[in-house]
């Protein structure tokens, strides 16, 4: 028990130091990206030292999902219905592009195509590793390595590109909610401001707030993809679209949520996988960077053809996790409805197609081995 407490305290302290450093450097999403990088490095230098319970990550993503959901309104629902065909088309396009990237990785790195596909599609690290375990012959380590490369590239390239290259100014970088770890007086003031937000803390609000973590638990029980995020996002967002006014989350709570979620992400990423695999690691990173370049070009083209900003298109199309990209959109004041709708559609479509195509590839490889 003392060893567990010591490891947990060390992990929390190192994560806070990473967040503080990013904040001093005025980097975007300091309290998510800073702890994530600090724990990635810690795991690479001292494997087995970091300890960060899943519960901490779940609480962080719960705060993020609530902050995202309360920003939705009737316009969000209208957008989802009107642009549903375009969202599905974009999702299918990304799946085909990632399928081609996976086949290229399989050929160049000499790994099986099933593992390369599951590693390349942007369906989430945990979901793809879990899916790989269901296919005989798929290599979980290969899937984890390629997904790790994508996660690292997206986790840092998306916020940095969006904040500095696409947004065009830095003022918003300092208002990412990371001021959350501040003095107690500031925290009390923020809580008071949040309580006086769009809805009063009546008994109905308290009852619904109590159901937010329940919605996360239920979504995970139903095995929804990214259920810990999707459940509360659908619950809070659905009621917001219907007209319910949710109170604003206090900034210290938002900052703490980013820290908890960032630490959870960093503790999951195994940087040593990329460093030790001299062939597959660089190839996976290069492929992820090429996908990011395609995203920038597509965002630029669509921004010329539509009234939607390049920033919003970039975040809508970015091949990242729903949580990471949505937090970036929230921090940089992009069109949150547009970004969330496109990211959710892609996640669902990719997960459905990935399983079917992976099963077909696995069957072909088994028959080729048998023949």
Automatic annotation (TrEMBL):
<feature type="transmembrane region" description="Helical">
    <location>
        <begin position="49"/>
        <end position="66"/>
    </location>
</feature>
<feature type="transmembrane region" description="Helical">
    <location>
        <begin position="344"/>
        <end position="363"/>
    </location>
</feature>
<protein>
    <submittedName>
        <fullName>AbrB family transcriptional regulator</fullName>
    </submittedName>
</protein>
<feature type="transmembrane region" description="Helical">
    <location>
        <begin position="200"/>
        <end position="219"/>
    </location>
</feature>
<keyword id="KW-0472">Membrane</keyword>
<keyword id="KW-1133">Transmembrane helix</keyword>
<feature type="transmembrane region" description="Helical">
    <location>
        <begin position="149"/>
        <end position="167"/>
    </location>
</feature>
<dbReference type="GO" id="GO:0010468">
    <property type="term" value="P:regulation of gene expression"/>
</dbReference>
<feature type="transmembrane region" description="Helical">
    <location>
        <begin position="226"/>
        <end position="246"/>
    </location>
</feature>
<dbReference type="InterPro" id="IPR017516">
    <property type="entry name" value="AbrB_dup"/>
</dbReference>
<dbReference type="InterPro" id="IPR007820">
    <property type="entry name" value="AbrB_fam"/>
</dbReference>
<dbReference type="GO" id="GO:0016020">
    <property type="term" value="C:membrane"/>
</dbReference>
<feature type="transmembrane region" description="Helical">
    <location>
        <begin position="20"/>
        <end position="42"/>
    </location>
</feature>
<keyword id="KW-0812">Transmembrane</keyword>
<feature type="transmembrane region" description="Helical">
    <location>
        <begin position="280"/>
        <end position="303"/>
    </location>
</feature>
<feature type="transmembrane region" description="Helical">
    <location>
        <begin position="86"/>
        <end position="106"/>
    </location>
</feature>
<feature type="transmembrane region" description="Helical">
    <location>
        <begin position="310"/>
        <end position="332"/>
    </location>
</feature>
<dbReference type="Pfam" id="PF05145">
    <property type="entry name" value="AbrB"/>
</dbReference>
